[in-house]
Amino acid sequence: MNQSRNEEIVQTQGLARKRVWLAWGIMVAAIIITILATFYMKSDVDVQAKREFIFACNEIQTKIDFRLKDHEQILISGAALFDASDQVTREQWKTFVQRLNVGLELPGIQGIGFALRIPPDRLAHHVKDIRSEGFPNYDVRPEGDRGDYSSIIYLEPFLGRNLRAFGYDMLSEPVRRSAMERARDHNEAALSGKVVLVQETDKDIQAGTLMYVPVYRTGMPTGTVEQRREALFGWVYSPYRMTDLMRGTLGGWDSLESLRIRLQVYDGTLLFSDAILYDSQAANDMGLAPQFTEDLQVTFNGSPWTLRFIQAGGQVSHVKVWLTLAAGVIISLLLFGLTLSLLNTRFIARQMAERLTAELRESEERWQFALEGARDGVWDWNAQTNEVFFSRQWKVMLGYEEHEIGTTLDEWDKRVHPDDKESCYADLERHFSGETPFYQNEHRVLCKDGNYKWILDRGKVMELMDDGKPLRVIGTHTDISEHRRVQEALQERQAFFADLTEVSPAGIWTTDADGNNTFASKRWSEITGITRENAYGSGWVKGVHPNDRDVVFQGWVRSAKEGMPYTSEFRFVHPDGAVVWVFCQAIARVDDTGKIVGWVGTITDITERKLVDEALRASEERFRGLFERHNAIMLLVEPESGRIVDANNAAERFYGYTPSRLRSMSIQDINILPPDEVDRERESALQEHRNYFIFPHRLADGEVRTVEVHSSPIDLNNVKVLFSVIHDITDRKSAESRLAEISELNQQIIAGSPVGISIYKADGQCIVANDAIVETIGTTKEQILSQNFRQIKSWQDSGLMDMAAKTLNTGVKTSGITLMELSFGKVLWLSCLFSRFYLRDDPHLLLMCSDMSDLKNAERNLQELNQNLEERVAERSADLLSTNRQLLREINEHSGTASSLRESEQRMKMVIESSPVGIFVIQDEKYIFANQAFVNIFGLTDSSDVVGTQLETLYSADSGKRISDIARQCVDRSEMININGLQVLTRDEQACHLNIWIQPIETWGSSAVMGFMVDISGEVELRSHLNKSQKMEALGSLAGGIAHDFNNVLFGIGGYTELALKSIPSDSPASKQLKQALAATERAADLVRHILTFSREAEQEKRPLLISLILKESLNFLRATITQNVEIRRNISADLHSVKSDPTQIHQIIMNLVTNAAHAMKNTGGVLEVGLVEVSLTEDFVKTRPGMVPGTYQKLKVSDTGHGMTPETLERIFDPYFTTKQPGEGTGLGLSVVYGIVRDNNGTITVSSVPDAGTTFEVYFPIVMEKETSSEETDRVASLGTGRILFVDDETMVTNGIGPVIEDLGYEVVAENDPVRALSKFEAQPYSFDLIITDMSMPKMTGLQLSMKISEIRKDIPIILMTGFSDLLDDKTPSDYGIREFIYKPIRKLILAQTISKVLTKQDLTGGTDG
Amino acid sequence: MANILVIDDDSMSRDLIAEMLAEKGHKTVKACDGKEGLQLYDTTSFDIVITDMIMPEVEGVETIIQLKKNYPDVKIIAISGGGRISAYSHLSIAEKFGVKKTLAKPFSTNDLLTAVDELLEI
């Protein structure tokens, strides 16, 4: 079946494709036709258009032609007038023309006139004639000698423009002349070529043309040309202004048609633009491509006019074409669709027919099979003839052969069981009457073997007769005997089942698939308390305990899903409230497909069991709870194996194992006692009637604790386990042992005590007595122990009993020494101490006593002695006391004074020691005092280095003597001497400048002076540095100022010298001299450049570089120039940092220093040492050197072993122009240049020299941490400046415009339009910017505010403010805001560049401060 | 061979440059400041403009800017004698504004003529 279907599908698809191709084909064909039609239509339309166009053109041509002819006619009539009259006067002419009314009839004619031919000899006369007519100014124009003249003597209307023509000789103009001659010669009207009419003014100049008709004198022959020329009298003519004429001719054509067709009238046959007489669309050349062009000619008596008609493209209405195309496409599409649908329909129809046929065939087959299969008999009964067709099966069913049954109704009728016949026919009748839609009856039919078979007889009337009576009835016989049997069996079963259900002790129920109850047994009702009726459907649910409903249903659902039998336990609540527990079991009843159609189940009353279970569970819970939560350690142990079955939380806490871990252990893991010991313990427990064992248990952390284990067997789920409760008795045990120890100790103490101890109960009974007391008393222990102190007489007599009683009652300790007379005669002094203590709430008395008898005696003796002594002492002490008192008084006085004196001395000491001024005291030429400041001046540590020494020892050379002179002077004169700026040399050969005050001290006896000394060496040095630098700066400014002019002058000198050299022979003496002059100018230029390096503004290319490289390079270069007798030693460290400077400058320094050094040794030879190291300069070092800060520097050292320098020379070595060299050997600028460069780089240079030994220069450069940048970078970055600029302006036009300009200058620009954002950018990385440029007026934040805020973050960053003049500033000075410069708008690039450079350079050189 | 406009406020320099150029047959027109120079350039066509950088009235840079604005293809040689600000810095400003050849005073005839030749070839 499937296969054929697939084949069908494939077939169908194939057909489908074919169909589609067909449809497509048709559509394509249709479209092609459409396209063809469209083209045809288009060409048709075009042709039509063209034809129309041509027609229009021809029309116009004709019009023009006719018009010209009309004009000719008029002129001829004019000529006729002349012919007809003897004379035509002006008036007559006027009348003539007036009648013609050309203005109205023939617009375009400028006028109609007459030109008279005037032979030259008649000219003067003619003029006179005309003048006499009333035209005093008349003349024939233009003047000149020619042949015949002509003159326009009549021209009507004689107004306006036409007046200008009066007297004009048209023959003088070649174009007119030609026409006139033509007319004259041929006696016909002639049209002139294109002219400018004399009527034309400045305005609206149109092209013009004239028509002439000759007038001959009457009577003269006009046959030939010559005759005509002779006879010519004049011309009647008309001037035409072409535009007017055409407009007149074409009437309104212009306004309508000219929109479509453009008419150009050319004079002649050639279409030159200067021949154009008229253009209908001259003014507005639409510029569209011409679609049609037609040239026609109008020839007027030999004068051709070419008419060019142009129809612009797009004028043709292609509407028809488009319509055709559209229609065609639509039709094609429709055709496509139609074809497709038709094909489909046809196909579908065919398909349907085929299917129906197949179905029918199938159906028939099915019937056949069905019947065969079902083994039903079929009968076909003709109700009228009572003929019946019985099928073979029908017969076989009854046990007959095919041929054994006839074809009559009777065959059936006679076999029907008599008892069933009635109902059978009744059913038949019911069907025939229409009551039932078909006939059905079960009845018994006699079989061949004599038995009756139950048969199900079904049939239906298939055909009716016209009167409605049945004609044909067809039916089946089905053997239902089996079926019947089964039914009976079923019924029996059902009855059995019903009985079963009634008898069963379990309640039985059924439900449908949805759980609606369909059956409930009696027992069920008894159990649940719900009647069968009430249970029906969903009623039974109401009986289920509300709390259990969910469980019940969920279980149901699960069971249904998993296909498992359903079991659950739940409660029913009886109407009277009684609760019943039921155990419910059910299975699903499924149909063939496995779908559940219902449930059947049982319930049993398990209430009692439940209660029992509940109790059990509750108790188990309780136990569980107890077990878990109890603070006592509990374990459940399997008795045989010792495996730990369970442990509670307390056990976990105690042992340190988790319960799960414990459950995996056995008790033997914990109980570290070996098994035999365990047994022994068990035995001893038994013997001691203990129900507990004492074992050592090991915890998880290894600690062993002693435990008491109380074990008892219990039943847990029918398993015997040992339930053990464990008490940790480690502490108790240890406590016990400790107690035992203590007790032992106590015992020993008491026993061994030399002091007698006895303890009594409250009632007086002695319970403890130690050996000492026994000995003291002199009796036996038993004796004492048997005593009761309340009964001892001696106690009573001695007062001991009172003491004892007091202590016992009050608890207060009592003690005393009593004389006791003991019962057995012993007398002794007893020292006793009673105290009370409690023993388990019972008060006890403790007595401690010892025999004092000996002591007592001794005491008595002593007392006697004492008595004597006391008397004697009393005497003496009286004396002493008074003396004492006086002494005390004196002491007090002294100490007061002493302390105040001491205080002031301390204060004085402090002041003197802390004074920054050096203070010293000299007596007898020796220092007897010097404070710390004084000591420091000499570089010593402590005043002890000074005190005691001779005055002069602190100084060297004369300085000491000078000081002592001063001191002596001071003493002699007895007055203070003050010398400022005294230069001394200390004993370390240090030069110092000092301010000294010395004054004599009067009160100290022999010559002593006190002195104050301040070391001003630092200031002196500072001042000298400043002087030097100021000198340099002055020079620098000067240099800068004249440099420009100087360069110009040099340029002049050098240039002209060059030129001069060119014009003289190169070997001439003058040439040589001039060359020298040129060399001199070059030197001068160098000089200028040198000088300019002073100037701060000299442009330097400062970048981080490695001095070592330049040093090496320079040395290599200089090696050649240095004399051989000089050895060069170099000592350049590795791993040096970079220094920010200009390589040229560094080079200059090196060159200068090395050259100088070499020069110093050039005669004698020596060692030139060059070194480069990094050093750390301290505060001390830099404090005298302005512009430097402490830090790491690179020290360049150049030293020689040459002739050295004197101190005087050293002083002036850096002065410009100072030199010790001979003239010509050097300018003296070298070192000053070096000095300037060094200062410029924030470094310093020092020199030291010893005459004849050598000189050392040391140059210090501050280092930077950056790497040396490559030249390309420098070129790009530092040509004008480096820096990262934050550029803020709210107008994007400005930032987009100016930003790139600043970048071009070499800076990195961060542009920002929003000042708030700009501020936060700055805040994020304040030191990443070198300069801020900001606009003044911005929304959100003004430039001033922004500057202020930025200054707050970083005070030293320079800010440039851009402002227009309208911006207002308040009183605060700009520098408060950190603003260094203003730039006024509009911004000029040069100013911007200069300002930025200025601000940044200043920043660079001075590190932020103005200097 | 070429028409050259020379702008310099120093008359000696102007004359000297003119003479130098005359050596090679170049024709020179002299202007004493930027203003005059610009006016001249507007009315006559020159192949090259030589301008000093430091001048009164219209400074060298401004002159260059104006020229470049109105005649983008103008060929300029900038010269300078320096002063407070070194010639180098003036000339590098000029370079920023598109001047391709710069000379620092004093320069030799050769320098000048070479620069002119190179510019003319470009």
For this entry, give a set of tags.
heterodimer; A: 1411 residues; alpha+beta; 5-stranded antiparallel beta sheet; 41 helices; 46% helix; flat; disordered C terminus; B: 122 residues; alpha/beta; 5-stranded parallel beta sheet; 5 strands; 20% strand; globular
The amount of helix of chain B comes to 40-55%
What form of chain B results from the Cα inertia axes?
globular
How many β-strand runs of chain B?
A: 5
Radius of gyration of chain B: 13 Å
Q: What proportion strand of chain B?
A: 15-25%
The greatest interface here is:
A-B, 34 and 33 residues
The main sheet of chain B orders its strands as: 2-1-3-4-5
Order of helices and strands of chain B: EHEHEHEHEH
Structure classification of chain B: alpha/beta
Low-confidence segments of chain A, given as residue ranges, are 1271-1279, 1407-1411
Q: Can you characterise this structure?
A:
Chain A is built from 41 helices and 46 strands. In chain A, the strands form nine sheets. In chain A, strands 35, 36, 37, 38, 39, 40 and 41 form a seven-stranded mixed β-sheet that branches. The model of chain A is unreliable at 1271-1279 and 1407-1411 (pLDDT under 50). The radius of gyration of chain B is 13 Å and the shape is globular. In chain B, α2 (34-43) runs parallel beside α3 (60-70). By secondary structure, chain B is α/β, with parallel strands linked by helices. Helix content of chain B is 47%, strand content 20%. Chain B starts with a strand and ends with a helix. Chain B has helices at residues 11-23, 34-43, 60-70, 87-96, 109-121; strands spanning 3-7, 27-31, 48-52, 76-80, 101-104. Chain B has a five-stranded parallel β-sheet with strand order 2-1-3-4-5, with helices on both faces. Chains A and B meet through α30, α31 and α41 of A and α1, α3 and α4 of B.
